[in-house]
Amino acid sequence: MRTLYRAARNLLATIGLLFALVTFTPVLRPWIGWLAGEWTDPKGQTLIVLGAESLGSVIVGPSSYLRSVYAINAWREGGFRSIIVSGTPASGPMRDFIVTNGVPASAVKVEQESTSTRTNAVFASRAMPSEPGDVVLLTSDFHMFRAYRAFRKAGLNVRPRPIPDAGKRMSRFDLRWGVFLDLVVETAKIVGYRLRGWI
């Protein structure tokens, strides 16, 4: 009985400590920084934007929306000639949102075959212009580590342009547990990709 009591007490203490760390300290920020890598805003000929979640068939989810907004901003800064939005099911609604906000429809291509970061890398390279010039990869901060390496492994020399997704959500206490879970899942996916030789 004492052993069971000690185990329960230790478990509750661990949960309490984890709750306090995630909710009240900036402990997640270095983790996000490690996954995001170097914060730069490179320019190039082609901007590849990775899709995330969608809400139904025509509405972009939160991360997809944020990536689309930053893609529009990157286009408005000038320099890019084309945008490739990659990944189903979000790529179609993301393309529509990007075009609605002033990017010429002729400049936006959609790659709708891919269903994972690895297949984003494989199929996006097929959608590239014949002379792409510098290629810039835009995705969420917590996703960049895996995405950048998956694209390089697939033979596409991209320059990373992370956006502050988890970093923005960190500023709200009520969203920090969602950020924590995203980071745990993403780190597990990195391990899986490395074991499979995909990064």
Description:
- It is a single chain.
- The protein has a single domain, classed as HUPs (Rossmann fold, 3-Layer(aba) Sandwich).
- The chain is built from eight helices and seven strands, in the order ααβββαβαβαβαβαα.
- The chain has helices at residues 2-24, 28-36, 62-77, 91-100, 117-126, 144-153, 166-169, 176-196, and strands at 46-50, 54-55, 59-60, 82-86, 108-111, 135-140, 158-163.
- The strands form two sheets. Strands 5-4-1-6-7 form a five-stranded parallel sheet, sandwiched between helices.
- Helix 4 links the parallel strand 4 (82-86) and strand 5 (108-111).
- The radius of gyration is 19 Å and the shape is elongated.
- The mean pLDDT is 90.
Which helices and strands occur, and which strands form pairs?
Blueprint: H1 2-24, H2 28-36, E1 46-50, E2 54-55, E3 59-60, H3 62-77, E4 82-86, H4 91-100, E5 108-111, H5 117-126, E6 135-140, H6 144-153, E7 158-163, H7 166-169, H8 176-196
Parallel strand pairs: 1-4, 1-6, 4-5, 6-7
Antiparallel strand pairs: 2-3
Helix pairs in contact: 3-4, 5-6
